[in-house]
Structures are given as structure tokens and as C-alpha cells.
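Exam revision sheet. Question 4 asks you to relate a sequence to its structure. Input first:
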Amino acid sequence: MKHLLILLSIVLLSSPVIGEETGVLYQYETPSGLVWKTFGNEKLQPKYEGEITNGNPTRLSSTHDVGKSSF
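Answer key, C-alpha cells:
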């Protein structure tokens, strides 16, 4: 029983934060500002690949602008 409790604790503590996932987002310009969507055209919109929390990028280090290099 003690081993099961230790194993369960390790699994729970090492799991990713709830609501965090990885994927691709595309940036759109709207009248209210810039928004990120899960669909788009990588030739037209800036693209983000990486960790996503609540539909937004968690880091901007892997954003790719159209016609520009990574920053």
C-alpha cells in the first residue's frame, strides 16, 4: 500500500499542468486586437508551435512570422 501511494504521488506530481497542451496556433488580426486560432494558413498568418494554455501560447520563442525568420 505504501508503494502504491508513493507511485501515485510521483505520477500526479510529474503530470503537466491542467489545461496545458501542445499544438499549433495561427494569429489573426481582429477589430478588438490579435487572437490565436487553431486553424489558419501558415503562408498568410504568423504561426506558433508549442505549449498552449487556455487557447493562448505560453511562450513566444517558437513563433514564425510570414516571410521572416524565427524569433
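Marking note for examiners. Helices lie at 2-14.
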